[in-house]
From TrEMBL:
Keywords: Cell membrane, Membrane, Transmembrane, Transmembrane helix. Signal peptide: none annotated. This is Lipopolysaccharide export system permease protein. Pfam families: LptF_LptG (PF03739). GO terms for biological process: lipopolysaccharide transport; transmembrane transport.
Amino acid sequence: MIIYRYIAYQVLIGFVMSTAILLPLFSFFDLLDQLDDVGRGTYHAKDAFLYTAMILPRRFIQIAPFIASLGTVVALGKLAVNSELIAMRIAGISPLHISFAPLSVGIALLLIVAILEQFVAPQLQQKAITNRAIALEQSAELGKNLGIWTRNEHNILRIGMIVHNKRAADIEILHLSAEDLLLTHTIAEYADIVEDQVWELSNAVIRTFHDDGRISVSHASSIRWPSFVNPEDIATLTKPPESLSPLELVRHVEFLRSTGQEADSYALALWRKAGGAIMTVAMLLLSVPLVFGSIRSGLSNKLILAALIGLAVYLLDQIIANAGLILRLNPALVALAPGLMLIALAALWLRRTS
């Protein structure tokens, strides 16, 4: 129908305008944050600008709900100011039917977000984090003096630092019996990954705990250890959960659970990606009755109200996510519930407006 194509076109323009305003604004804040580190190590102003540019896809994904909300308000608000919405209502087109046009544009936005989320944003964000850490002379993936820990049924592994893709430093391995008694404690200066499941430990010190209480110590310049993690698992362990693609998160959650480790933070990050899509739809649908509910007021008032609603929803979503992680609630419920509740609220509001 011509009217729906017209509305969709106006909403598309609104989305472009919102992106042109919000993305540079949030990127400017990112740049200010990075400029604080200029001068440390070999981190220069050009590195700050490069970092900001490389996380643009991630920032676009994060502000997609706001783009959907403000873009819809801009488009429908303009139609309301020009009395075009009133003409549509007189013609018998309800707000519910009008919402189908913005929704179609919103689905296209979600498709772009999905492509960026899987194929663009994770790679660029991880590269940006690594480059920044190297320039600041920090451990690129692990964070200074922190290391990472992982385990399976009979082994606990600590990696102090990733030197490059095939070498790790400051290695600690605890081997346990079936009764969870410590059998050996191995410390190595380096570990070279010679095969996916085989590591070569250099300058290793092995402490063996005997049943009679004795502890024997041996040294080895090089020994081979059958690892239970492959390079891909290590790379995933050392990256922030939100920087991983959905497929990486699915794989890593399965790995953590199969080795008896805590996976809630990664599961929550995975479900929040789906929750972000639902939230985008929810914010878009909420914007439609918002415009109709104040059809006589100015466009600026609608934009301010939409911005305040967006800010409140964002803060509430963050609070719910962190509270859910602390209280160990179901990650899917925590991530999806806010968006689903807002969609239900928008549906009721649209029905009353109609």
